[in-house]
Design a protein that fits this description.
The complex is a heterodimer. Chain A is built from eight helices and 14 strands. Chain A is of the alpha/beta class. The model of chain A has no long low-confidence stretch (mean pLDDT 87). Classes of the chains: A alpha/beta, B alpha+beta. At the A-B interface, helix 1, helix 7 and helix 8 of A face helix 4, helix 5, helix 7 and helix 8 of B.
């Protein structure tokens, strides 16, 4: 999967690149609008992560260029502006998603995957992790080919964790992914715990292994291996 | 009379031209010999003096009334704080422009206020952008750090504490930016917003808390409650109301949402802890009741600012653990 990140802040660029590096993406970066334009003209990307505030112009121009060239290239806007109307404006001119700074890297990763999945014509809706397979089109989860009955939140949790597999996820990022930034954080930590407990139980019931690891003091990790 | 004469010094009024005209007419009459005796001239001069006196009196009355009216209009404009108007010469429209000193002084002042206002607005917009990128970098780096295999349990605890404070910093910043945006009429676009739909959506959002705390929710809204206000602000207002009602509640408690009987508005009553702080104090920024340390203490001041700019009456009372919030559309 080919990814272009257009962001003028070099440190933020590096941080995002490093998180994505291990996920098997082909990554390219651009620090200015001009650089971004050149890259987009030459190559085809699955997804472009775009900061709107660039030193040499408005990122919106690049968004138009990307969408004129190939509609199936996903565009995720990064912005410091959290207001709803900017979000709506960004989506109206053709962006696929919108993320406000400061964001969680795990959240950005989930958005990229989801945008790419949605824009692919062939419809690659299958996500698998050993015996667990998730069909994102039908929102159906199977363990050892047996259907798992999950609540909406359990499904969202599992999907988020499988997308960010082998990564330590903070409780905060999980909470924001499921409930948004409005629900009280501390209470939601208890909810994550109980939803994960149910999820774990349901997977084990169908003969699946326990992949949900608790990382003391900070969060969870979905991975194979020993629980500490 | 002194003040009137002082005023006349500034500019010859229409009235003065009339007086000059009459005096010239008189001179011509003298030359042409229409006036036969000295007595006639004295009589005419006396008449003229009386006329001038009456004229001045009437002129003074009219002028004062007119000035008072325009000063009132001017004060009303300053009161409304409409500094965003691009019309820099707005003061010169007023009738007391001949009071040159005041005019210059006020023009300077309004100009200064407008400059400060625009400066501050730009500052707030910049802060939002400039602070969010470094926070995003710190958060990202910490997220990278926790992926390292060599981190001990104690390190995780430390990192988590940093993350919690970073999150608080973000939320305070976002809330302050929101408050400034409300102050700067950023959300001036209004439409008819149904509170019922927003309430239903919000209750859904807090489903987990409601379930865990075993809260009973009763919603008694027979008709649609529609407020003419900004939609974004309506969402923020209702979500804040419901968040307070859910979070500052007790196990097995209740939330009742009812329509106000005689007014256009809703009332949210919920059970909660008995608190000592006065409601006035809670509306101030960074004021938090009890030991609720996770709150940043800006929710109520955001709510009250939204209500102010949307012409909504907001009242919050608490007594013996019963908390009542009323929001009603101001009757015009």
């Amino acid at each position: 999967m080919k990814l272009l990140i257009v962001e003028d802040d070099i440190e933020l660029l590096r941080t995002v690149l490093r998180y994505f590096d291990a996920s098997g993406y082909v990554l390219e970066k651009a620090k200015t609008l001009a650089e971004g334009r050149a890259k987009v003209t030459e190559h085809r990307y699955d997804c472009v992560i775009l900061d709107l505030n660039l030193p040499d112009g408005d990122g919106i121009e690049l968004l138009r260029q990307v969408k004129t060239k190939d509609k199936s290239t996903g565009v995720i806007i990064l912005s410091a502006n959290s207001s709803l109307e900017t979000k709506v404006a960004g989506l109206e001119i053709g962006a696929d998603d919108y993320l406000t700074k400061p964001f969680h890297l795990s959240e950005l990763n989930a958005r990229v995957k989801s945008v790419v999945r949605r824009n692919k014509y062939e419809g690659d809706n299958q996500l698998t992790f050993n015996e667990i397979s998730i069909d994102t089109a039908g929102q159906e989860v199977r363990v050892n080919d047996k259907r798992l009955k999950l609540t909406r939140k359990e499904y969202e949790l599992l999907l988020y964790m499988v997308i960010n597999k082998n990564k330590v996820l903070t409780k905060h990022s999980i909470s924001e992914h499921i409930w948004g930034d409005f629900v009280d954080r501390r209470d939601s930590y208890d909810f994550i715990y109980s939803h994960l407990k149910n999820l774990r139980k349901k997977i084990i019931e169908k003969g699946g292994a326990d992949y949900i690891q608790t990382i003391y003091g900070i969060g969870y990790k979905f991975a194979e291996g020993e629980v500490e | 009379m002194v003040s009137v004469i002082n005023l006349q010094k500034v500019k010859l009024s229409k009235y003065n031209w009339i007086v000059i005209g009459v005096i010239m007419l008189l001179s011509f009459s003298l030359i042409w010999g229409f006036l036969e005796t000295i007595q006639d001239i004295w009589l005419l001069l006396l008449l003229l003096f009386i006329l001038q006196f009456l004229g001045l009196l009437i002129y003074d009355r009219l002028n004062t009334a007119r000035m008072k009216k325009s000063i009132r209009r001017f004060i009303a404009q300053i009161d409304k704080g409409n500094y965003e108007s691009e019309n820099a010469h707005v003061i010169q429209k007023y009738d007391f422009v001949n009071l040159t000193d005041i005019q210059v002084e006020l023009s300077d002042m309004v100009g200064q206020i407008r400059a400060d206002y625009n400066e501050q607005k730009r500052y707030v917009e910049n802060v939002s952008h400039e602070l969010m990128t470094p926070i995003a970098i710190i958060r990202g780096k910490l997220e990278l750090l926790i992926q390292s295999p060599n981190i001990t349990k104690n390190d995780f605890k430390l990192i988590n504490e940093i993350l919690i404070k970073l999150d608080r910093l973000t939320r305070v910043n976002q809330a302050l930016v929101l408050l400034s945006k409300i102050d700067y009429n950023h959300y001036s676009e209004k439409s008819n917003v149904s509170l019922n739909a927003i309430l239903a959506e919000t209750i859904d959002l807090f489903e987990d808390q409601i379930h865990v705390d075993e809260l009973s929710i009763r919603k008694e809204l027979n008709d649609e409650v529609i407020f003419y206000m900004n939609e974004n602000l309506a969402y923020i207002l209702i979500k804040n109301c419901m968040k307070n009602a859910v979070i500052h509640n007790i196990e097995g408690g209740y939330i009742h949402i009812t329509a106000l009987p005689n007014k256009k508005g809703i009332q949210i009553t919920n059970s909660g802890p008995v608190i000592q702080e006065s409601t006035d104090k809670l509306f101030e920024r960074f004021e938090v009741a009890g030991e609720y340390e996770d709150s940043i203490g800006l929710g109520l001041s955001i709510m009250s600012r939204i209500c102010e700019v949307s012409h909504i009456d907001l009242s919050y009372t608490h007594q013996n653990g019963v908390h009542t919030v009323e929001i009603s559309f101001e009757a015009k």
